[in-house]
């Protein structure tokens, strides 16, 4: 999984061993860096892959700041990489240096199937595999005499990382809740990660072909072969592989438990502060994935102490069709830190919740969303509060220019999630259409806001079927002289050009758009 360079990197019967053992890897066991940080490289034995017996070694680099001693214990921060990457071994790297400079210990690890943890396959944050891996690392940290401990087996610990490096934070935190019935992590800062992995890879069971192929290529040596087969087939055909056709792979079964959505369905919630960083222009894990984590994965108490940052960035590929706006930048972190970045905000967040310092931490229990124009909008709610008529919204019969319908004149400010409702008629088979909000002076020059479109699909013909379509979550200021549009198109390049199997317009009559208008 990939991200803009400016954003932090980027995706049953196994019994837990009762004893954690560590073994040295080929690198020297300890190296004294010029910064005064001691680096130690080790591996820890974790649970075997399914249908195997050999433990999988999870390898890590442990960074101990110069002032950390048994008499002066410090909190620990876990870090891990994005999909297809590997851990950080250099204490001067930008991934870990801000936290070492602030006096935190850092443990950066290779996730199962990647880097030197290549004795197993990547099961994409499965609770029984990658979840157990994180538990092993927490146990290692709990035995370090220079790390602050809140109790037996309970180190003072936070976590950083983006994309797949955000996924481990959730699976690790939920695994500890399931096994110990308590919170072990004290603060999380996941960036550009998911709530529902299936919905991210194939919303409405329409595969994001461009991203599914990229995911498969980056994980070619790590993924189980059957998953590579299923993702490749889905991307090639434009139909999600769910095992219903004999001989095909059931990707639904593979991905079902691999995200906070499933954990929440089991009655688990995170009750510690979380600093979210989510890309609004992110095409793989869009803004709505972070918003759903906020709304569903956290307890009300946790939300009161948490902060949500939406920035322009994340997993982004060049868009050619339809006409879109893909800005970059993080004005909201800059606003909350006096001109600094998300890493500086993260250090301040950890100082408050790991060191329990009385640092100024504005913006808690709020959404801070970067607009398409590069400003920051802060709101208490991202839910729609205004419904406007849209008449008839329809797509071209096949590939062709997006059709735009004006729904509001500027000035108007939108921040959050909108919904398109109405009665859908589509007479073809395996019908698909793609929708988004757009801004322009007229229907011809209207540009999709912040890059994303949302699919609607129906395998059977539809005649006046009620529908409520969740549009991509965005933040935008529509100036006077311009207007807000809802656009519809038959194909979208992120989905590999796959439209309806039988050409024909998808028509929504008596359409309404519910908007989160900032008042």
From TrEMBL:
The lineage of its organism: Bacteria, Bacillati, Actinomycetota, Actinomycetes, Propionibacteriales. This is Xaa-Pro dipeptidyl-peptidase-like domain-containing protein. Gene3D superfamilies: alpha/beta hydrolase. Belongs to the AB hydrolase superfamily. Residues 59-309 form the Xaa-Pro dipeptidyl-peptidase-like domain. InterPro entries: AB_hydrolase_fold, FrsA_esterase, Xaa-Pro-like_dom. Keywords: Hydrolase, Signal. Residues 1-33 form the signal peptide. It comes from the Bacteria. The keyword Signal applies. Pfam families: Peptidase_S15.
């Amino acid at each position: 999984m990939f991200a803009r360079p400016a954003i932090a990197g980027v995706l049953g019967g196994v019994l837990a061993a009762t004893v954690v053992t560590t073994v040295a890897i080929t690198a020297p066991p300890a190296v004294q860096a010029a910064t005064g940080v001691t680096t130690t490289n080790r591996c820890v034995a974790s649970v075997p892959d399914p249908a195997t017996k050999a433990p999988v070694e999870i390898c890590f680099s442990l960074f101990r700041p110069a002032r950390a001693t048994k008499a002066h214990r410090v909190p620990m921060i876990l870090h891990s990489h994005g999909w297809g990457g590997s851990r950080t071994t250099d204490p001067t790297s930008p991934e870990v240096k801000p936290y070492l400079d602030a006096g935190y210990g850092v443990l950066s690890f290779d996730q199962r199937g990647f880097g030197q943890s290549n004795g197993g396959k990547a099961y994409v944050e499965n609770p029984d595999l990658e979840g157990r891996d994180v538990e092993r690392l927490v146990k290692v940290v709990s035995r370090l005499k220079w790390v602050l401990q809140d109790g037996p087996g309970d180190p003072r610990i936070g976590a950083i990382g983006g994309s797949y490096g955000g996924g481990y934070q959730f699976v690790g935190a939920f695994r500890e809740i399931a096994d110990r019935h308590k919170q072990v992590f004290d603060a999380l800062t996941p960036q550009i990660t998911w709530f529902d992995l299936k919905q991210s890879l194939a919303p409405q069971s329409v595969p994001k072909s461009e991203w599914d192929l990229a995911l498969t290529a980056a994980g070619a040596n790590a993924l189980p072969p059957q998953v590579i087969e299923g993702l490749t087939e889905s991307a090639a055909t434009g139909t999600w592989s769910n095992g219903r056709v004999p001989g095909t792979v059931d990707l639904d079964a593979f991905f079902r438990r691999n995200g906070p959505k499933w954990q929440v369905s089991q009655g688990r919630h995170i009750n510690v502060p979380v600093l979210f960083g989510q890309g609004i222009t992110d095409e793989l894990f869009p803004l709505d994935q972070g918003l759903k984590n906020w709304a569903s994965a956290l307890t009300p108490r946790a939300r009161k102490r948490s902060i949500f940052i939406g920035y322009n960035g994340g997993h982004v590929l060049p868009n050619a069709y339809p006409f879109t706006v893909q800005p970059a930048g993080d004005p909201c972190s800059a606003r909350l830190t006096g001109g600094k970045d998300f890493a500086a905000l993260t250090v301040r967040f950890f100082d408050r919740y790991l060191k329990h310092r009385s640092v100024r931490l504005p913006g808690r229990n709020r959404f801070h969303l970067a607009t398409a124009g590069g400003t920051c909008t802060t709101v208490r709610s991202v839910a729609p509060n205004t419904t406007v008529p849209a008449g008839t919204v329809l797509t071209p019969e096949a590939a062709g220019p997006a059709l735009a319908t004006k729904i509001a004149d500027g000035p108007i400010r939108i921040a959050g999630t909108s919904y398109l409702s109405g009665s859908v008629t589509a007479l073809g088979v395996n019908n698909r259409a793609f929708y988004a909000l757009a801004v322009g002076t007229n229907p011809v020059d209207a540009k999709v806001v912040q890059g994303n479109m949302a699919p609607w699909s129906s395998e059977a013909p539809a005649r006046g079927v009620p529908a409520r379509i969740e549009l991509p979550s965005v933040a935008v200021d529509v100036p006077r002289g311009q207007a807000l549009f809802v656009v519809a198109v038959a194909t979208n390049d992120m989905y590999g050009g796959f439209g309806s199997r039988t050409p024909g317009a998808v028509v929504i009559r008596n359409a309404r758009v519910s908007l989160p208008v900032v008042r």
